[in-house]
Amino acid sequence: MGLTDWASDHLLATVAISLASLTLAVVSALGVAGWLLAALLGLGGTGTLGSLLPLFVVGLVVGVPATVVGLVAVAVGIAARASSAVNGTTEIAGIRLGRVASYVERENEYARMVGLADLVENFDTRSAEQRADDRTERLKERYVEGEISEYEFEQRMQTILDEEGVRRDRVSTIDDELRATERN
Protein backbone atom coordinates (compact mmCIF):
# COMPACT_ATOMS: atom_id res chain seq x y z
CA MET A 1 0.00 0.00 0.00
CA GLY A 2 1.56 3.25 -1.12
CA LEU A 3 1.20 6.77 0.16
CA THR A 4 -1.60 7.50 -2.29
CA ASP A 5 -3.68 4.53 -1.20
CA TRP A 6 -3.06 5.13 2.49
CA ALA A 7 -3.80 8.85 2.26
CA SER A 8 -6.99 8.18 0.33
CA ASP A 9 -8.16 5.46 2.71
CA HIS A 10 -7.21 7.37 5.88
CA LEU A 11 -7.85 10.96 4.85
CA LEU A 12 -9.00 12.11 8.30
CA ALA A 13 -5.90 10.62 9.96
CA THR A 14 -3.70 12.24 7.31
CA VAL A 15 -5.27 15.63 8.04
CA ALA A 16 -4.81 15.10 11.80
CA ILE A 17 -1.14 14.17 11.37
CA SER A 18 -0.60 17.22 9.15
CA LEU A 19 -2.23 19.52 11.71
CA ALA A 20 -0.16 18.03 14.54
CA SER A 21 3.04 18.51 12.54
CA LEU A 22 2.04 22.06 11.67
CA THR A 23 1.34 22.81 15.35
CA LEU A 24 4.74 21.43 16.33
CA ALA A 25 6.48 23.55 13.69
CA VAL A 26 4.60 26.74 14.62
CA VAL A 27 5.19 26.33 18.38
CA SER A 28 8.87 25.62 17.75
CA ALA A 29 9.22 28.64 15.47
CA LEU A 30 7.54 30.85 18.07
CA GLY A 31 9.87 29.49 20.76
CA VAL A 32 12.98 30.24 18.72
CA ALA A 33 11.62 33.68 17.78
CA GLY A 34 10.79 34.41 21.44
CA TRP A 35 14.29 33.44 22.56
CA LEU A 36 15.86 35.60 19.83
CA LEU A 37 13.65 38.57 20.72
CA ALA A 38 14.40 38.24 24.43
CA ALA A 39 18.12 37.95 23.72
CA LEU A 40 18.15 40.96 21.37
CA LEU A 41 16.17 43.18 23.73
CA GLY A 42 18.14 42.06 26.75
CA LEU A 43 15.07 40.92 28.65
CA GLY A 44 15.24 38.41 31.43
CA GLY A 45 14.05 34.91 30.83
CA THR A 46 16.52 34.05 28.11
CA GLY A 47 17.87 31.36 30.41
CA THR A 48 14.52 29.61 30.61
CA LEU A 49 13.89 29.89 26.89
CA GLY A 50 17.54 29.06 26.25
CA SER A 51 17.16 25.76 28.08
CA LEU A 52 14.25 24.92 25.77
CA LEU A 53 16.03 26.09 22.64
CA PRO A 54 17.33 22.62 21.67
CA LEU A 55 13.76 21.28 21.88
CA PHE A 56 12.51 24.12 19.69
CA VAL A 57 15.20 23.42 17.09
CA VAL A 58 14.38 19.70 17.09
CA GLY A 59 10.70 20.64 16.77
CA LEU A 60 11.49 22.76 13.71
CA VAL A 61 13.71 20.11 12.15
CA VAL A 62 11.03 17.45 12.58
CA GLY A 63 7.90 19.59 12.27
CA VAL A 64 8.56 21.44 9.02
CA PRO A 65 9.35 18.38 6.84
CA ALA A 66 6.56 16.37 8.48
CA THR A 67 4.13 19.21 7.75
CA VAL A 68 5.19 19.37 4.11
CA VAL A 69 4.87 15.60 3.68
CA GLY A 70 1.54 15.65 5.49
CA LEU A 71 0.12 18.41 3.33
CA VAL A 72 1.26 16.62 0.18
CA ALA A 73 -0.35 13.42 1.47
CA VAL A 74 -3.61 15.29 2.15
CA ALA A 75 -3.57 16.74 -1.37
CA VAL A 76 -2.84 13.32 -2.87
CA GLY A 77 -5.57 11.71 -0.77
CA ILE A 78 -8.14 14.30 -1.79
CA ALA A 79 -7.13 13.99 -5.43
CA ALA A 80 -7.35 10.18 -5.27
CA ARG A 81 -10.79 10.34 -3.70
CA ALA A 82 -11.98 12.90 -6.20
CA SER A 83 -10.68 10.90 -9.15
CA SER A 84 -12.30 7.70 -7.91
CA ALA A 85 -15.58 9.55 -7.33
CA VAL A 86 -15.74 10.72 -10.93
CA ASN A 87 -14.23 7.57 -12.44
CA GLY A 88 -17.58 6.38 -13.75
CA THR A 89 -18.23 9.56 -15.69
CA THR A 90 -14.66 10.09 -16.85
CA GLU A 91 -15.00 8.00 -19.98
CA ILE A 92 -18.11 9.85 -21.15
CA ALA A 93 -16.58 13.21 -20.25
CA GLY A 94 -13.33 12.26 -22.01
CA ILE A 95 -15.18 11.32 -25.19
CA ARG A 96 -17.20 14.54 -25.13
CA LEU A 97 -14.14 16.61 -24.35
CA GLY A 98 -12.28 14.92 -27.20
CA ARG A 99 -15.10 15.68 -29.63
CA VAL A 100 -15.28 19.31 -28.52
CA ALA A 101 -11.50 19.63 -28.85
CA SER A 102 -11.65 18.12 -32.35
CA TYR A 103 -14.36 20.58 -33.36
CA VAL A 104 -12.41 23.52 -31.95
CA GLU A 105 -9.29 22.32 -33.80
CA ARG A 106 -11.19 22.16 -37.08
CA GLU A 107 -12.57 25.67 -36.61
CA ASN A 108 -9.58 27.43 -35.06
CA GLU A 109 -6.10 27.47 -36.50
CA TYR A 110 -4.49 28.34 -33.13
CA ALA A 111 -6.06 25.30 -31.47
CA ARG A 112 -4.72 23.23 -34.36
CA MET A 113 -1.23 24.66 -33.91
CA VAL A 114 -1.28 23.86 -30.20
CA GLY A 115 -2.69 20.40 -30.83
CA LEU A 116 -5.64 20.83 -28.49
CA ALA A 117 -7.16 17.45 -29.28
CA ASP A 118 -3.87 15.72 -28.55
CA LEU A 119 -3.66 17.50 -25.19
CA VAL A 120 -7.19 16.41 -24.31
CA GLU A 121 -6.34 12.78 -25.07
CA ASN A 122 -4.66 12.59 -21.64
CA PHE A 123 -8.07 12.86 -19.97
CA ASP A 124 -9.60 10.13 -22.10
CA THR A 125 -10.05 6.70 -20.47
CA ARG A 126 -11.02 4.82 -23.62
CA SER A 127 -8.95 1.93 -24.91
CA ALA A 128 -5.83 2.57 -26.97
CA GLU A 129 -7.56 1.30 -30.12
CA GLN A 130 -10.53 3.64 -29.65
CA ARG A 131 -8.26 6.62 -29.04
CA ALA A 132 -6.09 5.70 -32.04
CA ASP A 133 -9.19 5.37 -34.23
CA ASP A 134 -10.44 8.83 -33.23
CA ARG A 135 -7.03 10.41 -33.63
CA THR A 136 -6.52 8.81 -37.05
CA GLU A 137 -9.97 9.97 -38.14
CA ARG A 138 -9.04 13.56 -37.28
CA LEU A 139 -5.72 13.13 -39.03
CA LYS A 140 -7.41 11.72 -42.14
CA GLU A 141 -9.79 14.68 -42.21
CA ARG A 142 -6.86 17.08 -42.10
CA TYR A 143 -5.09 15.16 -44.89
CA VAL A 144 -8.16 15.04 -47.12
CA GLU A 145 -8.75 18.76 -46.56
CA GLY A 146 -5.18 19.39 -47.71
CA GLU A 147 -3.94 20.80 -44.40
CA ILE A 148 -1.04 18.33 -44.20
CA SER A 149 1.10 16.57 -46.78
CA GLU A 150 1.16 12.83 -47.39
CA TYR A 151 4.58 12.55 -45.76
CA GLU A 152 3.40 14.48 -42.69
CA PHE A 153 0.28 12.32 -42.59
CA GLU A 154 2.34 9.11 -42.58
CA GLN A 155 4.71 10.46 -39.92
CA ARG A 156 1.87 11.55 -37.65
CA MET A 157 0.03 8.29 -38.25
CA GLN A 158 3.07 6.35 -37.07
CA THR A 159 3.39 8.64 -34.06
CA ILE A 160 -0.23 8.01 -33.11
CA LEU A 161 0.18 4.27 -33.42
CA ASP A 162 3.38 4.36 -31.37
CA GLU A 163 1.90 6.60 -28.66
CA GLU A 164 -1.25 4.52 -28.31
CA GLY A 165 0.65 1.23 -28.46
CA VAL A 166 -1.40 -0.04 -31.39
CA ARG A 167 0.22 -2.77 -33.47
CA ARG A 168 1.71 -1.96 -36.86
CA ASP A 169 -0.70 -4.21 -38.82
CA ARG A 170 -3.46 -1.63 -38.25
CA VAL A 171 -1.69 0.68 -40.70
CA SER A 172 -2.84 -1.37 -43.68
CA THR A 173 -6.47 -1.06 -42.61
CA ILE A 174 -6.08 2.66 -42.12
CA ASP A 175 -4.31 3.03 -45.46
CA ASP A 176 -7.11 1.12 -47.20
CA GLU A 177 -9.71 3.37 -45.60
CA LEU A 178 -7.74 6.47 -46.61
CA ARG A 179 -7.45 5.32 -50.21
CA ALA A 180 -11.19 4.66 -50.31
CA THR A 181 -11.81 8.16 -48.95
CA GLU A 182 -9.49 9.70 -51.56
CA ARG A 183 -11.30 7.91 -54.39
CA ASN A 184 -14.64 9.33 -53.30
Automatic annotation (TrEMBL):
Alphabetical UniProt keywords: Membrane, Transmembrane, Transmembrane helix
All copies of domain SHOCT, residue ranges: 137-161
Listed name of the protein: SHOCT domain-containing protein
Membrane listed as a keyword: yes
Highest taxon above the source species: Archaea
Transmembrane domains' residue ranges: 12-43, 55-80
InterPro entries: SHOCT
Organism for this UniProt entry: Halosimplex pelagicum
